[in-house]
Input
Amino acid sequence: MVRKVLLASPRGYCAGVERAVDTVEKALDLYGPPVYVRKQIVHNLHVVRDLEARGAVFVDEETEVPEGATVVFSAHGVAPSVHANAAERRLQTIDATCPLVTKVHVQARRYAAEGYTVVLIGHAGHEEVVGTMGEAPDSIVLVESVADVARLEVDTKVAYVTQTTLSVDETGEIITALRARFPDIHAPKREDICYATSNRQWAVKEMLSEIELLLVIGSRNSSNSNRLVEVARAGGVAAHLIDDESEIDETWMDGVTVVGVTSGASAPEKLVEGVCDWFRARGVDDIEAYRLVDEDVEFRLPVELRRELALAETQR
Output
């Protein structure tokens, strides 16, 4: 019987997600609905539904947005071709790409311009990877595993960049393999895996010895949420990814006394509250934070939006 729930810290929204969601909300306030959003602004079902209810319209491609309309690009970043298509359709664009993803784009472009073959460590098909590869499609090759490194055929100097939401441990193994194969490989000055992804994985590792089960709140397509599940399982603790409390299976609790709860970087805190209420309704009163770690990273809103908001302020 579960007698205690420990809440991982840090968890939930990162600065990039907060900025992206704020961007859509402020654009709706400023222009009124509809505001179009290319792809899911962040990978969370609840966030997307809440914004839809306020008048955001989510589309798969910028080419689906009516000419001249306002479109927000998601936190995962887009390829240069998307900007070109948007300009052609005279769309008013607001780029909510996370600044840490933009940093990877800039690095990839720079390496390609200097004649490097750029090895991108990431997951095929993830929006962030698609956007990064679009920066220099002829110069970037994707690797997803150590086995992929062994298969690389490269006859130029080599550099690497990584998707920002990967497993710190797995990425470390791939980088080790790359360095072994290409001793002169050029590396980013600072690692590309974002602070929030690293911190959330670290927080899970810290609490594994105290818990018998981990619930990770996040959507199926959230890369960083899936990595949290993997971190727990790699440490020998059962773990499940849930969108909200409605997906908890009571049989998971059989023989479990302490449950850990965390949430991916795109999951709002209200979902954690919902899970805590689920346990309270079953008589669990001992719900506490496992260590308290503050993240004080903040990103300013996209420049296009700041400019418009400032203009609106002066016209009042």
